[in-house]
Amino acid sequence: MMILDGTIVNVALPAIQESLGLSSSNLGWVVNAYLIPFGGLLLLSGRLGDLFGRKGVFLTGVTIFTAASLACGLASNTATLLTARFAQGAGAAIASSVTLGMVVTMYTDSRQRAKAIGVYSFVQSAGGTLGLLFGGVLAQTIGWHWIFLVNLPIGILTVIAASRVLRTDTATRDDRAVDGFGAALITLSMMAGVYAIAETSRYGFGSIRTTGVGLMAIGLLVCFVIRQAKVRDPLLPFRMFAIRNVSGALATHTLMIAGIFSFQFLAVLYMQNVLGFDQVRTGLGVVPVSVLIGAMSLLVAPRLIARFTGRVVLLVALASIAAGLATLSRISAAGTYLTDVFPATLLLGVGFGLAMPALAGLAMSAATPQDSGLASGMFNTVQQIGSSLGLAILSTLAASHTDALRARGATSVAALTGGYQLAFGVAACFVVVAWIVAATVIRTPRVSPVAP
Predict the structure, then answer these.
(1) What are the tens digits of pLDDT across the range 148-187?
(2) Are the CB atoms for 191 and 40 separated by under 8 Å?
């Protein structure tokens, strides 16, 4: 539900824009207002799970998320919607930060853990594309407010089920402090960085406004790093990055997500603005991705990882994703879904469905029961950082190139298509760099990356 909510609004963005009178420059913040706190608070939330028990942290996050969903569904103006989306992202961070940690600690047998990580990876990766389908159906049939209100019964049932099913765990490190100031620094740094990138389409890269905010983002990030190096109980212990496969997996994950997240945003706009799809047809257009992600992550990836190792599976998966994005970079203004989009959905579905279980296993390979919450938070943090920055960079590139083509006399459809082509090409480059990082940094472990 929480991963889905990061993308369910994408298909409904035109309806939200018309209903609330949002400007084009502010429209992306309906997505970013959710993703920024989601990414910025994951490390703190993972630490809280280690300190005070993961079940309690999970239930708290789901409760906040559900209440904020109600506020989003009842929003009648932009300020209310964006504030509620921020609270949604905070609740999602608190709950989802401990989920992978719970999976790792509950399943100690290597085969069981591999299957459990496969299920987790399916939820992580397919949730985003399923959001496009459900968002289209709900927005077109009963209104955009219901893409948020539908979370209420799901959230209530989740709280009831989790209270009964999940076992209560206890604090593992009561003597450790919580670095709330560090969490504030990294969250504000992310917010300023995404804002600076997003606003370049309006003010330009060299403007005082964007440059000033960008420098502030870098300064906050430097302060965060310095604090983590000096504070007694850091929010992000640098010892985790000393493990080669963990740091390589996190870097690869960030770059891969930055590239592939463009599909969930820009492909939707291409299908609606160029191909003329309605919201339901747009949602159906991404169904092949979800189906293949499910098949790969649940049925194929665990077996391939056990036979060929996570590194080999990851390299093949990244090549498939890069090929899918490169295919999208060749879309045309006179194209069709079957020729321009469908082939890419097959490559992306296969690649992403194989990549996520491999990356999750590698990123959690050094997690102990005492650090599983932190490791889980780190894995989810880089995913949200990649999606936030990827969306900001690629959507800004698409918008800027579209404006430039219009200024040269191109038609609206041709200009939009040109912008999308450039963004998808850059996204493919992100994934190529991710492949290079994985090939050079990650090494085949002596044991399976999902072994306890």
Answers:
(1) 998 999 999 999 999 998 888 765 555 556 777 887 888 7
(2) yes
